[in-house]
Amino acid sequence: MRSMRRVFACAVLLALCIAPCSAGAAQKGARPAHHCGPDEAVIFACPTAGDKLLSICASRQYGPDAGFLQYRYGPAGKPELTLPAAATPPAGAAKSGLWSFSGGGGAYVRFLSGKTAYYVYAAIGKWGKKGAVREKAGVAVEKDGRVTANILCRGAAASELGPEFFEKAGLEAADPGFALPD
């Protein structure tokens, strides 16, 4: 029985490392509402409380020094926050990170605004009752090294976060101090 658990855990970790992190309806092809334009790629999208949308958008053609990557948050059609404010190539716009832990793993992208960091994340693990596999996605806001807000996705999230996207975008690894919020 113990070896079956290890095989399962290794399979989950391998799947996370090979494929982008995805959640809920994104696996079935449905895409939640987002702030990305028709000529942009949706890297991450989900609805949050208060009828707001959380999105990471990129130009259709992007690379470490080409195109752009932006975090957008707010009501549909009227983002309250866009980071970086000017279209910036991915390598200069954000940093990335991966988690691996027993029964799952996840990925995140960090955007900075002064001393405030916005960590958009998606993860899967055994957080349910009796160790059932569950998914978490959202954005954690960190000021001066302390999480001050954790805005969870409501319903399904669409996510391309993971090693393949990070490599294509040329995102460097963020400092390893960010942990998955409760």
Q: Write the element-wise H/E pattern from the N-terminal end onward.
A: HEEEEHEEEEEEH
The end-to-end distance, rounded to whole angstroms, is 29 Å
Biggest beta sheet attributes: 5 strands, antiparallel
Class by helix and strand content?
alpha+beta
Q: Uncertain segments of ≥5 residues (pLDDT<50)?
A: 1-28
Shape: globular
Describe what you observe in this structure:
With 182 residues, the protein is of the alpha+beta class. It is 15% helix and 40% strand. The protein has helices at 2-18, 90-93, 163-169; strands at 40-48, 52-59, 69-75, 81-83, 95-101, 104-113, 116-125, 134-143, 146-152, 158-159. The strands form two sheets. Strands 4-3-2-1-10 form a five-stranded antiparallel sheet, with no helix packed on it. Strands 5-6-7-8-9 form a five-stranded antiparallel sheet. A hairpin with a 2-residue loop joins β5 (95-101) and β6 (104-113).
Question: Quick recap of the structure?
Answer:
The protein is 15% helix and 40% strand. It has 182 residues and is of the alpha+beta class.
